[in-house]
Structures
1.
Amino acid sequence: MEQAIKNSFDFSNYLEKAKASIEIALDESLGPEEPEELRKAMRYSLLAGGKRLRPILCLAACELAGGDPQNAIPTAVALEMIHTMSLIHDDLPSMDNDDLRRGRPTNHKVFGDAVAILAGDALLTRAFEMVSLRSPNVPASRLIKVVGELSLVAGAPGLVGGQVVDLKSEGKKVDLETLEFIHLHKTGALLNACVICGALISGAEDNLLHALRKYAKGIGLAFQIIDDILDVTASSEVLGKTAGKDLLADKTTYPKLLGLSESKKRAEALVSDAKEALKPWGKASAPLLALADYITKRDR
Ligand code: GRG
């Protein structure tokens, strides 16, 4: 059955089209920004490429819930803005202190720490503007729920909380439970928000939202496990960011706790469970099923 769905769905074509529409929307989402230095810094990171997995998940969930993905574009852009600002801040000297991101020098290396912080702040606030003021054709009652999801994911219950525990755990012995907390908050929470917000735009029923949360929990954790594996096995050139960083920063990772092969198996099991959650939606879930597989098979 699943094989049949896979065969009739052209994932690379889907990915290419979704990515192209996101790139256009991202380009149009910025402006007018004054002064020019801020505009340059915001554009530098937002338009630097990247897999665009988060906005694509949002569009796919919107479609699964029966909506027109076009209506979810501003929210998809908002999610990529939050992701990008988190990368800018994560790379700062006071955080992960990195100088390579998406294949180019990090934002603060080009614009300085102060402008990098402010460009991140401006992207974060623009994200809320995208949803509340730049989302035509979506009822306000749905948009307010999306704003709620975004405020949870960007704040202490989401990325910020995960980042603090991550920073405080560096150089310390971390158990699997704490590692899972970090991953679910730093990485999983935003992936969850992507599918939930996409579905909310379409006015999804509770049973679909519940299934999407299960799906997102699985792919969120799997995504970060693969990220940990790639940090050990891939090169900086392919990743577009500094490889081997976790070891250098003395971070606890899945490969460190479980070994490479066990970590891979765990990621695959999580993806399989994630896909299972969407089974009742059959063919309509093909894009989300393929995106889940893409997470474990990716090389960057
Ligand atoms: C959100 C207010 C607010 C603050 C941010 C710095 C911080 C707080 C959180 C750190 C979050 C972080 C950087 C998590 C890592 C997530 C991760 C695995 C990123 C890599 O994602 P990819 O591989 O990257 O999808 P591309 O470049 O393809 O988009």
Note: The chain has a mean pLDDT of 95.
2.
Amino acid sequence: MKKIWIRDIKNYEGKEVTLQGWLYNKRSSGKLHFLQLRDGTAEIQAVVFKGNVSEEVFDLADRIPQESSVEITGTVKKHDRSKIGYELDATDVKVISIANDYPITPKEHGTHFLMEHRHLWLRSLKQKAILNVRHRIIKSIRDFFDSHGFTLVDAPIFTPNACEGTTNLFETDYFDTKAYLTQSGQLYMEAAAMAVGKAYCFGPTFRAEKSKTRRHLTEFWMVEPEVAFADIYDDMDLAEEFVEYIVQQVLEHNRADLETLERDISKLENIKRPFPRISYDEAIEILHKKGNDTPWGEDFGGDEETLISEEFDRPVMIHHYPMAVKAFYMKQDGNKAACVDVIAPEGYGEMIGGGQREEDLDKLLAKIKEQGLPEEVFDWYLDLRKYGSVPHAGFGLGIERTVAWICGLPHVRETIPFPRLMDRIRP
Ligand code: 4AD
Ligand code: MG
């Protein structure tokens, strides 16, 4: 039997069809039961009229509990007031599997309760819309790089060394030695860029973040392009073209999902190149003007990023931070690093971190020593500077912060199907 999905219902106007799905809501009035059916692709209302079905079916339709799986047969009728434009005039209703006492009811639940039931919560229409947007973002990322001459190169998950500082490493036993879960595939992408010119990796990354903020997960997904013969300005050009593409793809394909999420779409329609570019020094000035007294030389946190983002109607690129607050691999430019952070609008925080890499062997070695990093585990990385070193640059975009911004979600925990947080590792 060919399965008919609700999404395709317009092809069956006037015809009798059998749909399968889950009953997500229902109401009754006298001789009518209105069953709300969802099958993951879309939703439709089935109208069970007492005069059209047997007495048993009419009684059954009244008793089926929420989230039971059901099969409903009926005629597809045009119905302009429904979201999908059609409804089903039911002639038969069968239960596939009864769901007694489904824990998530249409009433409000607390976050902890919903997180404990994340495996069921995903079925709600809002969560489904988020999954759809996340999928679109990931597909757009892949399409963008695949059509811009990049080669996908997978980075390892078990690593012998840190990339983004040693304070938030997850350590694990690795036979008779230790390994760390990767914080970033960047160092491997630098090796890959020397092999294929333009490389990118896309995968999960791990950080033992001990802070409970709305922007931090312990496991998150990152895409990391790396380009040979590129400088910090090429890097910023790439980042803004890339972010514009992702947003415009979501607008083109996922309008209904954004509407389900009640996202202010006009704010997203604005996301067009060029993005504003300001130096760290200019960012400090903005902060001081707004009454935030972050001293020159300090890194920005979530509060500072929010204040800066309020000044712009699209992502803002902050470049050239003081060398001291950035990682060892950054290319030095005076006392600054040739780096860039892209801050999302509307207070969603840093979505991209990247920049040009130090290509000089001696300067890089000095930095590794200065930061007290174990030189011996970076021997392979230093080889890249010994054998045909060239200027190169790249960045990492965090998927969850991008999803949070585009969907307008206050916390990253809803942007990933099964979030991993400091205090959450189930379900
Ligand atoms: O700025 P970060 O630490 O940069 C790097 O890891 C570079 N090695 C990337 C590169 O140049 N190839 O992280 C990049 C992005 C952040 O801007 C943010 O979007 C996301 O990764 N991110 C997190 N997202 C969720 N939870 C966390 N704990 C995150 N830490 C970083
Ligand atoms: Mg960063």
Note: The two ends are 34 Å apart (CA to CA).
3.
Amino acid sequence: MNTLTDTFGRKFPYIRLSITDVCNYKCTYCLPQGYKKTPGDKRDFMSAEEISRLTKALSELGVCKIRLTGGEPTVRKDFFDILKDMKQNSNIPKVTMTTNGYRLDKIAQQLHEAGLDGINISIDSLNRETFKKLTGHDRLQEILTGIKILQKLNFKNIKVNAVLLKGINDSYDDFEKFGNFIKNNKIDFRFIELMQTGDNLDYFKKNHVSSKIFKDYLHKNNWIHQTHGKDAGPSLNFIHSDFEGKFGLIAPYSKDFCKTCNRLRITSRGDLRLCLFGNTGISIRHLLQNDNQKEELLDLVIKQLHLKKESHYLELGNTGITTNLSSTGG
Ligand code: SAM
């Protein structure tokens, strides 16, 4: 039974756990200059041991899914140790990850063998040049090869995410290209509406486009909205009888987006964040130092949850303490 419930009756079986702030890509909307060490930054991310203690404790709160994120989770040298420990020792039934697909062709087999249960890969454009401009890396092909390898290994839960960007991937022509990609490919492709963060206001003003444009495209092309499953998150999913894959949409500015919130976040430095755009984070790291602190840790997480607000108020321009998504684990 899930004991993580907030004052609005929402349940939280799902944790997004960032394991590093470091990212090797330079996505124009997130870290356009790349990850930079700020003065005093010791890169003191949680150790594998602290993460292990944390995930074991979370499983006792009924958490049944953890998504590893970052930064870019795969840049951590002990990434596979963390993943394997979580799969083998934590009692969390589902461990997934969000990645920019870095070296996916090389590590696909290892991910499968470690028991990863699902992967979200960020691909903002299927055009090699556009991809390169957006990320600073000419790596589209290695990601696509990596996806093929995963599919050959019968890896089931593959999702591709793209941030919807004005003039870059928001034309009907772009939508058709993504459609061709999932036509005979059992992959969920989802657009995420660009979110304003503390760092990207100018970029946001220039490049944000409402997800309505994609919704209109889906309706015009006979995609059918799938109703939410019991523990589904805030994404809207669409199916079509001619397509093996699904389209999806994550529209944080839409009305009622937060009603289906089912996730909490823990940053790479061990702060519990109740909302991606909340104003506070509370450190739980001091309670990850030895095994007999577990009860205190569980108590703190449960108490904190009562402070979770009803909405992120993003539509009012509130970005909370989120400077960019790599620091919170998008
Ligand atoms: N490095 C990994 C990756 O690229 O998927 C994981 C971290 S990244 C912060 C997670 C997701 O957040 C990516 O899909 C990225 O495109 C998305 N993202 C980052 N900044 C965003 C923003 N301002 N608005 C919407 N999505 C954003």
Note: The domain at 14-327 is CATH 3.20.20.70 (TIM Barrel).
4.
Amino acid sequence: MINRWLIFFACMLTGGSLGAWSPYRYGVATGLVTSAVVWLAIDSFYVSRMLRWLRGEQNSDVPSAIAQPVPRMPGVWGETLDRVRRLLKERDHQYQESQARLDEFLAAIQASPSGVVLLDAQGRIEWCNQMATQHFGFDAQRDMLQHIANLVRQPVFNAYMSANEFSHDVVIPGSSSTPARPVKLSVHVHAYGKNRKLLLSRDITALELAETMRRDFVANVSHEIRTPLTVLSGFIETLQTLPLKEPDRTRYLALMAQQSARMQTLVNDLLTLSRLEGSPLPGSIDWMTTRALLAQCEQDAHGLSTVLAARSHRIEFENGPACELAGVQSEVYSAMSNLVTNAIRYTPDAGLIRVSWKLLQGGRGEFTVSDSGPGIAPEHLPRLTERFYRVDRSRSRETGGTGLGLAIVKHVAQRHGAELHIKSQLGQGSCFSITFPAVRVRQVLKADFLENSCALHPTAVPEN
Ligand code: ADP
């Protein structure tokens, strides 16, 4: 600043000295005034350049960068401009940094599996993430600053918002919910800042479904166990209170044994299912021969047919090419045996049951059980593998069914990467098949080796 004063005085001195040399009367005064005017003109020129540059920066469309070249100026103006430029640069840097942080933060909220909506003090949408647009059917651009109550019109949600009590969540149907495919959302509002609100939404359809299934499952198991238990306790009471004759006692004890066997089968099936759900997926190290599996199933089929049918069924087994399957032997056997025993149980006396193994294109293998039984109406087919789902309740119970057989088959198939296919028509019999993927099937060329191997144990067949 001292420099500036010195230059100013030097200017005035020069102007005054030049004026003193002039022949005119007021030469000194004229010189001084002229110097001051020139000084002011030069100063104004620099001020206007600086102002023009600053205005240009203020009106620039690029807020985060210095848009125009910085004018060069001497002395104090140059320094002022340089300091302003540095300040602006620092501001730009901070702006860019906070913008990048905000972008990262928003990207993180976008990636959230929950819907996030920011509401202002009036309940208008300030921002929402992609998931919230899906949950509520918002349009991220069009619906900005719209009042949320105008867009989410569920009475239960509006009551929740107007009660202004957000200690709990509220469950409402999602925007894509239909009677056939209901979608349930859990919505929870959290107040923050000056009367602002953060709304979080979560799709709980699967959770609710699992909870309903769990409740149904417990109800079904209790029902299945209660019936034989009631019968058993009835007989026990009779045996305890009445002096029964020997034939009656024997008959009652036989019926009691039947009921307890029924409970045992049920508990065994439940344990099988829980084991299937809890154990790791089967690897591809243990191989079992299809012939041994089919031989065991054939034995079971004949045994059961003799017990159940007055006139035995016609049972045909087609072993197909000698193959090996990779997986858990007890599981695969249980799945195959379930299909075979179902065919025997649901096919009337003397009916035909065909069981076969064949190789499909691409190296896949198919195990098929078809019967000439009553068939199944199409509306039941999609539900057959549900736990405790039965088409013919009385036939199932009469023949010792638990309603869990096909659920076990489906589980085993899924665990082995196989598919269960069911084809059936009322009055035309049924056909159940399990298709194993090529990676779990290998054809065994040494057929005679397998011919001798009928035991249900994993066999290590040397491959050529
Ligand atoms: P269940 O122990 O009752 O047989 P499953 O899960 O094995 O239970 O079968 C479910 C239902 O599918 C059965 O109750 C029965 O109504 C029907 N079903 C299964 N296999 C056959 C079949 N081969 N023929 C006709 N109906 C069948």
Note: Residues 342-343, 346, 371, 373-374, 376, 384, 389-392, 396, 401-407, 430 surround adenosine-5'-diphosphate (CB under 6 Å).
